[in-house]
Amino acid sequence: MAYDAPAGGGLAGGLPEFVFAPAHPLAGGGSDLVFEVRELADGTAVLPVYSSTGRLVAQLGPDQPWALLTLRAAREFMATAGVGLVAVDPGVAPGAPRWRPDDLAKLADTISGRAGEEP
């Protein structure tokens, strides 16, 4: 079930304090994270967040990179980015893009600058 987190950032309706958001490091290195905003069927932008890694993996797959943050921080980051909806534990369409092992390898290459070596 998906919920819109309260605009004030407080917890309501049993929403979790901490969530797992699909996110990955910015390609090319640095400490910035890219949060993976998705679109609902009507075109509305949403950041899906999950109350556990198990729920995230069930919807987005085992290769999905993620970040742990508070639900309040997720709402604040998305509001700053112009995304007004954060959905908790949403379902994802079967055909939605999912990370694969080779996607992770390519990202690792862009971060480290050299394939197969530690950054």
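(ticket continues) Second input and output from the same batch:
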Amino acid sequence: MLPLPTHVELQGVALGSLRAGAAITITARRTIVDFDNVAVSQLAINTHPLHTDYVYSRASRFGRPLVVSHFLLSCLCAMVVNELDAAAIDPLEIRDLVFERPVHPGYLDRVAVDR
């Protein structure tokens, strides 16, 4: 059985019809895997081992690597733009952004690191 499509072009809410505090439903899905996190860390020259080292991060209060926050923000912006009709030409403004919980890579998070 084929998975349901996760992307539809130019269908969604018109940005002009939204007001501050309005909620939109994000239909796109994206699993951030270890490769994504390591690649973004390397591109940003982010050398902190909390993002890429399972042994180091296991000893932290998070217990696993954290996804780089600017990658999360770019995914969030892309998903919101996908939900808006013709938003590529409209300005988006982000205020008071807070990451309330840690986000970990989702695909390989069960890989044993004791090998």
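Agent notes: Residues 101 and 113 are 23 Å apart (CA to CA). Residues 13-89 form one domain. Closing as not reproducible unless the customer responds.
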